[in-house]
Amino acid sequence: MAAIQSFSATHPGDPEPGDLIEIFRPAYQHWALYLGDGYIINVTPVDEGPPATLASAKSVFSRKARVRMQLLKDVVGNDTYHINNKYDSTYPPLPVEEIIRRAEYLIDQEVSYDLLGNNCEHFVTLLRYGEGVSDQILSQPFS
């Protein structure tokens, strides 16, 4: 975790592998899953190259997204974030090893994206809990 020590000093939380990271963008929240050693996995628009910052708002209008492993500090940029495992009381988290294995399998794959039923929060909750859920927008379960 040495990669984020100085970064953590100015941003709340010390994430553990498998934690959900909520990133506060100017007009919305972006979600990622912490992998460890300063890296996260998240979905970004297919045509977006690293790093993902404000451009990830483009995914709202896209039907496809790419799964990327990126440094948390690069994805957060000048925004703020916190650890938010808000569904833990409703859905038991999968074992950390399984969460990471599932996440690593998806790196660099193209996935479908839908703001209402298959967004970035659905993606990371599917990895953590085995069920995609989101309360960002009135939404249906990830399928």
UniProtKB/TrEMBL annotation:
Keywords: Hydrolase, Lipid metabolism, Transferase. The keyword Acetylation does not apply. Gene3D superfamilies: endopeptidase domain like (from Nostoc punctiforme). One of its GO terms (molecular function) is phospholipase A2 activity. One of its GO terms (biological process) is N-acylphosphatidylethanolamine metabolic process. One of its GO terms (cellular component) is cytoplasm. It comes from the Eukaryota. Residues 20-136 form the LRAT domain. InterPro entries: H-rev107_PLA/AT, LRAT_dom. The keyword Transferase applies. Belongs to the H-rev107 family. This is LRAT domain-containing protein.
